[in-house]
Amino acid sequence: MDVLTNADRAEVLVQALPYIRRYTGKIVVVKYGGNAMVSESLKNQVMEDIVLLHLIGVKAVLVHGGGPEISEMMGKMGKKPEFVDGLRITDKETVDIVQMVLAGKINKTLVNLLEKKGGSAVGLSGMDGRLIEAKVKDERLGYVGEVTKINPRPIIDLLDNGYIPVISTIGCDRDGNAYNINGDTAAAHIAGALNAERLIMMTDIAGILRDKDDPGTLIPEITVSEADKLKQEGIISGGMIPKVDCCITALNAGVKNVVIMDGRVPHSVLMELLTNEGAGTWIRGEQK
Fold it and tell me: Among this protein's residues, is 31 annotated catalytic?
């Protein structure tokens, strides 16, 4: 096994310097999910990446879901998960489970892990400070929400005071009803409201592939119009369509850069931000 010398380590830091300069003081939103959330090893590495960014002055915001854990808890409580077009049917009892799992167990576990790694983190749900305002997305789905407004003040206050905000994607309406919000959708709207420098969407594949069965066909960079063309050609299909649509929503809302990134790669967040290698597909607006 190759061992880095002290000179090698110093060179790595020097090579990262232009990227550190670019992102220091800027807001980076990370949508955390998929295998990186299930694997304990990857979970630790993602939290280390977030803390390192925090310590070099990047204003990191972590947005998380937790679909598998919600389904597991539903099973323990005798409820069978049901889905329509990939969205969980969420009755009143289920939305209570969603709150318990997302805003409780998962959120506080991530906050604790970030603190153990040396960061300063505070957990929020989208209901805190009416951060995520929502309405019924589809009557068939029950308490599944469509984002109507993001109130970024609670996030900005935490960032300005040196904390890493950790946000669970639960929204509410003005009557106080809670809604289950798709994590990618929430992250896109939050990044837009924060005018983030970059939104990183973690997923379980290498990025957008020309051949879905061949990771070697990764498309490293596309524009919004190219994304539309790839959808028409069937190259962007299935579950990748709503993820790409969320990326375009973020760009249209003012996010500078968006990347769909392979969350299965160790330290992929650092690779994406602090090296010239990257770790997925960069989606950008049209060149002026």
Answer: yes
